[in-house]
Amino acid sequence: MPYTDANGTIMIDEIAANSDLSKLKASRDKFTEALNAIQVMIGENSEMAGGIKESLDESLLMLSDSIKTQINRIDEMTNYLKMVVSTYKAIDQSVKGSINSVMP
Q1: How many domains, in total, are found in the chain?
Q2: What is the pLDDT of residue 94?
Q3: 56-102 pLDDT per residue, tens
Q4: By residue range, what is the domain housing residue 57?
Q5: Residue 74's closest CA among 24, 23, 22, 29?
Q6: Which of the two ends of the chain, N or C, has the fewest CB atoms closer than 10 A to its terminal CB?
Q7: What is the pLDDT of residue 9?
């Protein structure tokens, strides 16, 4: 159900928000899979030696940190979107209650 302001402008669509949440979860799952693969590579890389190992270690750690940052951003977006939907649901319920209390 869309939430509208006093002018009738749609503020949030719960169905669209839930779709976005599903997409964010799918993205997070893919990033988590990638992070797990990198961690396996880091473990396997421990058997290497020399300059290639150091370079690969550095690259893998940078990539791992970058993916962790993206996962954190997805978590923040997910939490924010859930908060927005919850807030608008509460506002909607409050407005409905106010209308119902003054209308027979």
Answers
A1: 1
A2: 82
A3: 889 999 999 999 999 999 999 999 999 988 888 888 778 777 777 77
A4: 51-82
A5: 24
A6: C
A7: 65
Q: How many residues does this entry show for the chain?
A: 104
Cα–Cα distance for residue pair 87/95, rounded to 1 Å? 12
23 domain residue, yes or no: no
pLDDT of residue 15: 84
The helix (run of H) or strand (run of E) holding residue 11 is strand 10-13
| DSSP structure class, residue 50 | S
Residues 6+ apart with CB under 8 A from 42: 57, 60, 61, 64
Q: Which tokens sit at 40?
A: 């396996």
Residue 56 falls within a domain, yes or no?
yes
Return the structure tokens found at 38: 């990198």
How far, in Å, CA of 66 to CA of 70, rounded? 6
Alpha-carbon distances of 46 from 34, 37, 57, 83, rounded to whole Å: 19, 15, 9, 43
Amino acid residing at 91: I
Task: Extract the tokens encoding 83.
Answer: 């908060």
- Whether 65 is covered by a domain: the verdict is yes
- Domain-located, residue 67: yes
